[in-house]
Design brief:
Blueprint: H1 3-10, H2 13-34, H3 37-63, H4 69-92, H5 98-120, H6 129-147, E1 150-155, E2 158-163, H7 164-201
Antiparallel strand pairs: 1-2
């Protein structure tokens, strides 16, 4: 891509929203580091806002035909910066085991590298249902871990105490199961695609 093309792409609405999401990363990290109930709640709020912009920029890009190569690079970058930074900060606070985060990060790095390798060979490996479910569970788990504290829920006939940390931790554990499953799908899909290419070249 030429520099002028990147400059044009960077100022369209979806990419501005993506850059805004990247700008929220240090804000979320600082609030997580504070660790107080109020800071934890605001960390969740900003994390949720970032999640909404993730959906919104994709919707606008498709609706207004503003899908760009710059956006295809920035969007997954913003997602990984937000999620991975939050996970690392939560390890520092002792809210999630470092071993669990290492598994999550290793999976992300491996799949990202594999997709880059596939793209260099002209192959496209689509995200499976397992990967989409992993992402949804991971976001829910992170929200629980960000809120962290126990709150009383009093709504009509429902009165109970909700421990957001416990809920978030176990949902994140379940997401790791789907994360590893989707990683296997990516690797098997890559091997099949390479095999298909080899047969065509013979």
């Amino acid at each position: 891509m030429r520099a002028n093309t990147i400059r044009q792409d960077i100022v369209n609405v979806p990419n501005i929203l993506t850059l805004f999401r990247i700008a929220l990363v240090p804000v979320v990290c600082l609030l997580i580091y504070d660790g107080t109930p109020s800071a934890s709640f605001y960390a969740f709020v900003f994390f949720w806002v970032a999640g909404v912009t993730d959906w919104l920029d994709g919707y606008i890009a498709r609706k207004m035909n503003l899908v760009s190569l710059t956006g295809k690079f920035l969007d997954p970058l913003a997602d990984k910066l937000l999620v991975n930074s939050a996970l690392i900060m939560l390890v520092a606070l002792g809210r999630v085991p470092a071993s669990l985060v290492c598994v999550i990060l290793a999976r992300e790095i491996s799949v990202t590298s594999l997709r880059a390798l596939a793209a260099s060979e002209g192959l496209v490996i689509a995200a499976g249902e397992g990967g989409k479910l992993k992402t949804a569970l991971q976001m829910v788990g992170l929200i629980g871990l960000l809120v962290h504290y126990t709150y009383e829920v009093d709504w009509v006939f429902i009165q109970l105490k909700v421990n957001f940390h416990v809920i978030g931790f176990w949902v994140l554990c379940v997401s790791v199961f789907f994360s590893l499953g989707s990683a296997w799908q990516y690797f098997s899909g890559f091997v099949k695609a390479i095999g298909g290419q080899s047969e065509k070249s013979i």
